[in-house]
Write a structure and sequence with these properties.
Order of helices and strands: HHHHHHHHHHHHHHH
Shape: globular
Number of helices: 15
Radius of gyration: 21 Å
Helix content: over 70%
Strand content: under 5%
Largest sheet: none
Oligomer: single chain
Number of strands: 0
Structural class: mainly alpha
Number of domains: 2
Length: 365
């Protein structure tokens, strides 16, 4: 991808301008490199830092290409929606339609293959959320039948993060749509409550069917870990242990951490037989990057949130981006997100949106 990006730059007339996107992402990347000096294993840190740097360089080409476009954000929203559905269709092609249905019915989970199953589920969930936004706010894409195969794929992945994203994303879209109506008109509120009841009833009905029993059981384990009532499954217990190891390390090295991408070494030192990360972006950055790492990375999200909230009352697209930010921050509790390539592509879209909002609403400071 980096080679292809360099080739595109060489044959095109793209104009590169240093923007807030580059400033915020590169400062985090530089801090990742800096942690090499005190990391438990500097090679692991350099490997990850190089990956992040290469990703930023590739995404910068996309940024330069989309930045001059007048309607770049709407175009990107449609691209992400359609590409997500393309992944859904490829999932059926890869595993087979009958296998997807039988996996759901047998309370099994599809295995990692062409991609991590959680990523597949979250891509599908994001497409559903974007599709409902286009349907509710842009009055486009009424072909919501494409949501059904995406929901079935989410069930097959049994990804709790994907299930949360799909339900919370659609729920919040309807909530903001109801609030956007006339202040004294109760009809939008009544419609929202009715739709909320339907969504809850539908989720409960699907949970009781054999088709989604595996996903239902995993969600029960997650709820039990939060409420303290019921049986917590092995996966949830293991993730709780990983997070606790990370927070314990944070208490020992609170400022600078043990070096980016060194969490697997940390787990091996406390007797874990799994050579893996901490399955929580907050605990991962706290342990590996310390307080400085947390501020360096989540300072990006704080900047985006503060700026998006400025426009939420004057531009309907800001509603989607605030919801999207909430979903990303919420799912970070169960996933490590600071290094995947799609994270930086998503951040690029956010920065392009803020750029568009400033051009569209220059009176808002």
């Amino acid at each position: 991808m980096l080679g292809l990006a360099i080739f595109v730059v060489g044959i095109s007339n793209l104009q590169f301008k240093f923007a807030p996107f580059h400033l915020f992402t590169l400062q985090f990347c530089l801090y990742c490199f800096a942690t090499t000096f005190w990391a438990l294993n500097g090679r692991e840190t350099i490997t990850m830092s190089n990956t992040i740097l290469q990703t930023i360089l590739v995404v910068s080409v996309f940024y330069a290409a989309f930045s001059p476009m007048k309607d770049n954000v709407n175009t990107l929203i449609k691209i992400i929606t359609l590409s997500g559905y393309t992944v859904v269709l490829y999932t059926y092609f890869f595993y087979g339609f009958g296998n997807i249905l039988s996996i759901n019915a047998d309370s099994k989970r599809i295995l990692n293959s062409f991609n991590n199953v959680n990523v597949i589920g979250m891509v599908a969930a994001l497409s559903i959320t974007f599709h409902f936004y286009l349907h509710l706010f842009e009055k486009k894409r009424k072909d919501l039948i494409f949501v059904i195969p995406a929901v079935i794929v989410i069930g097959a992945t049994e990804s709790r993060k994907a299930i949360f994203m799909a339900i919370a994303g659609v729920f919040l879209l309807y909530f903001f749509k109801a609030r956007s109506g006339p202040r004294h008109n109760m009809l939008p509120i009544i419609k929202f409550l009715a739709i909320a009841i339907v969504i809850i009833a539908l989720v409960e009905s699907l949970a009781q069917t054999g088709l989604f029993i595996g996903a239902y059981e995993r969600m029960q384990g997650l709820i039990a870990s939060i409420t303290g009532e019921g049986e917590v499954d092995t996966s949830t217990s293991l993730r709780e242990y990983y997070r606790q190891v990370g927070w314990d390390q944070f208490m020992q090295t609170p400022i600078l951490g043990i070096g980016i991408n060194n969490s697997a070494i940390l787990l091996s030192r406390v007797g874990s037989t799994h050579y893996t990360y901490l399955h929580c972006n907050y605990a991962e950055l706290a342990a590996c990057g310390g307080l400085v790492g947390l501020i360096s990375y989540y300072g990006i999200y704080l900047y985006l949130l503060v700026n998006e909230l400025k426009y939420i009352k004057v531009d309907k697209s800001a509603i989607l981006f605030v919801i999207w930010l909430f979903l990303m921050l919420a799912t970070d509790w169960g996933a490590v997100s600071y290094y995947p390539k799609h994270t930086y592509f998503n951040l690029m879209v956010f920065f392009l949106h803020i750029q568009q909002m400033r051009q569209r609403h220059p009176y808002i400071k």
